[in-house]
Amino acid sequence: xxxKLKKELGLFDVFAISTGAxxxxxxxxxxxxASHYTGASVFLAYMLAGVLILPSMFSIAxxxxxxxxxxxxxxxxxxxxxxxxxxxxxxGTYFALMLKTAFAIIGIGAYAAIFWEIPTKTxxxxxxxxxxxxxxxxxxxxxxxxxxxxxxxxxxxxxxxVDGVYSIYVGDLISKQALDTQFSPFLSDGVGxxxxxxxxxxxxxxxxxxxxxxxxEIKNPERNIPLGMVLSLIVTGLIxxxxxxxxxxxxxxxxxxxxxxxxxxxxSQMFSWLPDNAGVLLMSIAALAAFASTGNAGxxxxxxxxxxxxxxxxxxxxxxxxxxxxxxxxxIFFTTAFIILFILLLSEEGIVKLASTFQLLIFxxxxxxxxxxxxxxxxxxDPGYLSPLYPFMQIVxxxxxxxxxxxxxxxxxxxxxxxxIMALLWYRFHAQGKVKREGAIFHWFALLGKYQYDELExxxxxxxxxxxxxxxxxxxxxxxxxxxxxxxxxxDIDKVLDKVSDYFAAELQKDKKSIKDRFVKSLLDDSVITxxxxxxxxxxxxxxxxxxMQIIVSKTAISGEIPFKNNEVKSPIHICCFLxxxxxxxxxxxxxxxxxIDILERExxxxxxxxxxxxxxxxxxxxxxxxxxxxxxxEGTSQSAMIGRxxxxxxxxxxxxxxxxxxxxxxxxxNGSTVLQEDDILTILGxxxxxxxxxxxxxxxxxxxx
Length: 706
Hints:
The protein contains 30 helices and nine strands.
């Protein structure tokens, strides 16, 4: 598909995009402004904001590992609360991100003006166009640029903190009496002022949310998204708290409250081990790197919102166009144009409040979305990370966001209301007639007998299939232990079900009739999955210890009428797969089923399997990964040393297993005492590195003899 993005981003990319999006205005610009609301305790406001974002971060991590799709908050809200809320959340978050990005890029121009006499906004526009070019090249190259920014920035900020703590508590920069004066009054406006300040600087942590807008491009999202977000929050929270504490301790209160570059002012009194003004120069360079990092990550993540909404027909479809480099070209151009417009028209404190207010509203919706998804009982909602303390964590997140919105005042609330109204009008007059889906909330309502949108389950199943198996899912083991039935004479569906029920009755020690009745019922209620030439039966039983599979391959088409209620048989049926799992692990059953579907819906799969004569070949075909190798034991080859030895005597890497042996056209699972014979074909499973080594050692050097 041309409108799918490449999965190129790893854990460090996630950390770099998230962290890089947070260290700009939050550290280099906002501390002085935020101190107006709470005084010297402003460093606590930063740390409080980091704690208050935790519930929303947990909720975002859960949904994004279940739905790793471009569009972040928009996609979550659309699929949970419906396309109307998706439109509101998508447009609102899109504007909030662009405002924050524009503000950061203006910072580049402001700091550049310290060194060169050039117009601030001219520099900002040139920087925006540069970031646009980077984003057009691809997310991986964009994130590579991001990693350089973030690494450089962290080194300088850690140096700033170490030098600051040393100067305050070991050096003679400030006396203890003067230090006490700096922190008095501590809470200038009480606890209310502290919360107002926390709400104001809340925008400093919004880089955490930027990750989910590129979730579709993240490798192993179930691990990398939550881990990357947690690492980013810990590092950022510590640097914010300690860094702002140092600024408060060093800079005179009145100067600090009105200073737009407090980090540079603090540095001018520190770094005594460097030449004159070197500290200011160092922090100014760090600020430029921070603003560039935020601008780059902001454009990357913001452009995915119109891309995702265009793909879902809520915005014009042209916004979902993918370029030759695998990036959303039109969405990037569109976003760049808006950011340049904001650079030309807008500025400072009000923008921060507006961005924070709408983001807090989105957090309310996202926390509610987790509750909706869990209550909807959609089996294919399968997050790789579950938010702790559900639903208490989500309720706390909703309450926190409401409180902070109230503290931020009426003007940002009115702006947020305006964005909501604009989104409602856009949905009513542009999107409503083009979008037929509904969200997971209708599945929750279905418990009350109301309408639900079945296509949502199909979409989540598709996402589940794309995510693939989770570590620990016993798909390979189930394939290896599966029973293969080869029918060379004509058979009808009843005979197939009889044969399969006999096998499962012995395997699971259950009544044959009850097993057959379950398979027949699955035909009648259309739960059997139909693919061209293939039927896939899947049922769950109590007290099943391990998944079990049987595959029937018929050289001739299976005859007889297949008693479907609604589904149509897709071409003559030659393959029937039967998968039984415990009812205690429905998610695992779905993941294994989706993996099986992914393999069996490939082109010419029936033709390929019918051409195979051995059970080993069929099982290897179903494994479909790089974690196995087949080795044939031949005299005069490097593997001939195995011949005549027990399997336990053969030295193989610790992380590999001889799973199957084919001997005289029969396939069996060996044990340690199995004696290997000439012409045996071994199927060896293991870690990719070890399998690659075995392939080069056995297959690679001897492939001319195969």
